Amino acid sequence: xxxxxxxxxxxxxxxxxxxxxxxxxxxxxxxxxxxxxxxxxxxxxxxxxxxxxxxxxxxxxxxxxxxxxxxxxxxxxxxxxxxxxxxxxxxxxxxxxxxxxxxxxxxxxxxxxxxxxxxxxxxxxxxxxxxxxxxxxxxxxxxxxxxxxxxxxxxxxxxxxxxxxxxxxxxxxxxxxxxxxxxxxxxxxxxxxxxxxxxxxxxxxxxxxxxxxxxxxxxxxxxxxxxxxxxxxxxxxxxxxxxxxxxxxxxxxxxxxxxxxxxxxxxxxxxxxxxxxxxxxxxxxxxxxxxxxxxxxxxxxxxxxxxxxxxxxxxxxxxxxxxxxxxxxxxxxxxxxxxxxxxxxxxxxxxxxxxxxxxxxxxxxxxxxxxxxxxxxxxxxxxxxxxxxxxxxxxxx
Length: 397
What we know:
Blueprint: H1 2-35, H2 46-82, H3 85-91, H4 96-137, E1 149-156, E2 167-178, E3 184-193, E4 198-211, E5 214-225, E6 255-266, H5 271-278, H6 286-298, H7 304-327, H8 340-368, H9 372-396
Antiparallel strand pairs: 1-2, 2-3, 3-4, 4-5, 5-6
Helix pairs in contact: 1-2, 2-4, 2-7, 2-8, 4-7, 6-7, 7-8, 7-9, 8-9
Organism: Massilia suwonensis
Main location: membrane
InterPro entries: LptG, LptG/LptF_permease
């Protein structure tokens, strides 16, 4: 059985690597084609485009590995069936369960490689690729909003261990631009108390992160609204015969403004959170997704999209086992059922179907507020049932 295991591993690995490199070559060509119109803008030259495409390839390895494992395994199984090798293996007392166990052990290697690319390599190369691209163009990171990047964090009581003290309010964080080195340009901070009454407006020309949850603001203008007397509650009933002149929740006549050269600000927001907030969840590691999802939940912001992406990061590499199991029935199909090329075509269609259904469930789960784990695992369960049904059918026929 060790000889068969080694024989399976060699043939399947060779096929999967070949398919993987074919996919990566096609994707790299398409990425390079899309970058060519930007060549010549600023200092962005052809070598920068090549470097950008190369740094984005690890992310594509993570994306196409499940489909490459499916097609490569189908090719190897179809070759075994065409040469009658699989029939001889079965005659030598190899059961379907034994063949499935051998595929499972081979799949472990592909799953580990996928996790390494998804968790260790891609989260480092994707930001570096963006940094190379922007640095060569001489531009900065910009948000999809005209007003820049927005995020939110909590305001903690002063002198209570930085960001771990009691929450006394909330802060809306706005930066018009983010440089590749993490420096913020044209910063505005809007601070509110727990009753959502505005307490401060801080503007700064730039902000640099010093570490330990501290930002240093430069050329700061700070406006404090210190009067907390409530004029009227908009929801309170109005006594008969009386009118309310104003329904604002606070009186803003007590205002103090100062201008200083620099100000150290303690905040839960870090450059990592800012980078994560504008990145594609598919390019983030599970750890980054967990941290950012927790940050959004603590600030009462919508985190469903990132929680779904987190579970997909865990589940999608494990789908390799399911897709390789789905390839096993092709070894039972004789040559009269179709040649190798037909089976590979069917494998490509199955792979495309898996990608489409996986994406469909992600959008449906987000729109229908399905549990994040169920949304991520449902496509794999569906294809697992398909693999079990296919194996039972070929064994009976």
